Amino acid sequence: MFLRFVNSFGFFVAISFILAAIVLAAELKRKSSQGLLQPTEIQMMVGQPATAGELLLNFLLGFLLGFKILGLFVMDSSATEDPQAFIFSGIGSWPAGILLGLLFAGLKWYEKNKRKLPKPEKRTIRIWPQDRVGEMTILALVFGLIGAKLFDIFENWSDFLKHPSSYLLSPSGLTFYGGLICAALAIWVYAKKHNIGFWHLNDAAAPGLMLAYGVGRLGCQVSGDGDWGIENSSPKPFSWLPEWMWSYNYPNNVNEAGYPIPGCVGKYCNELKVPVYPTPIYEVIVCLLLFALLWSFRKKLKTPGTFFALYLMLNGIERFFIEKIRVNTRLNIFGFQPTQAEVISTLLFVAGLVIWIVLKRKSVQAKSTF
Predict the structure, then answer these.
(1) Is there a contact between 147 and 179 (Cβ–Cβ < 8 Å)?
(2) Angle of CA points 197, 198, 200, to nearest 5°
(3) Is the predicted pLDDT of residue 8 greater than 70, yes or no?
(4) What range defines the domain where residue 82 resides?
(5) Above 70 in pLDDT, residue 169?
(6) 222 vs 27, higher pLDDT
(7) Inter-CA distances, 304 with 31, 168, 209, Å
(8) Cβ neighbours of residue 96 under 8 Å, at least 6 residues apart?
(9) Confidence band for 338, pLDDT divided at 50, 70 and 90
């Protein structure tokens, strides 16, 4: 039963965000220990019991998780046959939501009551950048999903005008670069507000971004969300290479593209008539290798920002070349017909190169003044 829910893009997106947060926290902690990042101080009251607002917030969080996530496992299979549609619908388990909500609120009350003081007092608390990773992850998740959906709409604007509800209400159709750009803008604003070094934060985020992208592409592969390659009926070049890594017809894909599978009943019973290049798998492999490369170089580039510039260039190169065998909507720009991803990946590479040159020159000039 569990595998039915795992076989979705959303599961791997969640895993990718968790892994990115772990890597980011580790890098921020390393930079803090080197004195490259400093904490901020805030004053807060300690020893107070849980407020009504805190209890309500925890109840709502628990209710949402119980109503939807637990509902997937406890409700009748007829309601949860399509997990993605279920998550985005108004259907859920009220008993599971209420019970988990009360549990979350009760745990919050117990935690605050255990630390309650006879007389609450105001204390100065030091918060390091790595302590804020949870907040940054939530920001990245929210603005990343919004950006990914908006860029997908822009990429398919003519079709969106014909079927707006199929885009706005669908959990599928997410553009990675849209999520990356919007999430980055949100986190940069947050970092500026909390005095987190701009370039050091970017450098710390680079390995996690590459890892998250690679893991996220696993979701594209297992769900068959349409992010596949062009048709490939060529003979397999290596006997040891599994067929599905060379030419794959994506049976039971969530896009329900292709033709009905004989004997299959229910949703997601289609497969492609002509197999295609499984480009998500290629990106998984390449991005994991690039993550290993970035991880090995993270302590060697001393000029702040150059490590992030390297990430931008590697990311741009990887995505530009995978587009050559990938199905995508093409734009019409001055007689050229690139895909949106080709345009953005080119801009990312150029931006990375410019950042590298500018920061290196500034570093050399700064050293020459001493």
Answers:
(1) yes
(2) 65
(3) no
(4) 44-127
(5) no
(6) 27
(7) 11, 39, 17
(8) 66, 67, 70, 71, 74
(9) confident
3-state DSSP helix/strand/coil % of the chain, to nearest 5: 65, 5, 30
Q: Which residues pair with 229 in a beta bridge?
A: 326
CB atoms closer than 10 angstroms to residue 205? 25
Q: Report how far Cα 45 is from the mean position of its chain's Cα atoms.
A: 35
Is residue 22 within 8 Å of residue 233, measured between CB atoms? no
pLDDT at residue 228 is higher than 70: yes
Residue 40 pLDDT greater than 60, yes or no: yes
Is 86 within the bounds of a domain? Answer: yes
Q: Model's pTM, two decimal places?
A: 0.80
Across 10-24, 81-95, 334-348, least confident range: 81-95
Check residues 145 and 60 and name the one with the higher pLDDT.
60
What would the two tokens of residue 102 be? 């009360």
Most confidently predicted of 77-86, 131-140, 179-188: 131-140
Per-residue b/e over 131-153, b at no fewer than 16 CB within 10 Å? bbbeebbebbbebbbebbbbbbb
Q: Let me know if residue 105 belongs to a domain.
A: yes
What count of other Cβ atoms lies within 10 Å of the Cβ of residue 279? 23
What whole-number distance in Å separates Cα of residue 154 and Cα of residue 178? 10
**DSSP calls for 190-233:** HHHHTT--HHHHHHHHHHHHHHHHHHHHHHHHHHT-S--B-B--
**CA distance linking residue 21 with residue 312, whole number of Å:** 19
Q: Which residue has the tokens 């990106």?
A: 283
Under the banding of pLDDT at 50, 70 and 90, the label for residue 153 is confident
Nearest-angstrom CA–CA distance, 279 and 230: 9
From the CA atom positions of the chain, what is the Rg in Å?
24
> Which two structure tokens, joined as six digits, stand for 15?
């895993």
Q: How confident is the model at residue 165 (pLDDT cuts 50, 70, 90)?
A: low
Q: What is the DSSP letter of 123?
A: E
Q: In this structure, is residue 325 part of a structural domain? A: no
Q: How many CB atoms lie within 10 A of CB 334?
A: 4
Tell me, yes or no, whether 3 lies in a domain. no
pLDDT of residue 179: 76
Q: How many domains does the chain have?
A: 1
**Which distant-in-sequence residues (6+ apart) come within 8 Å of 36 by Cβ?**
197, 200, 304
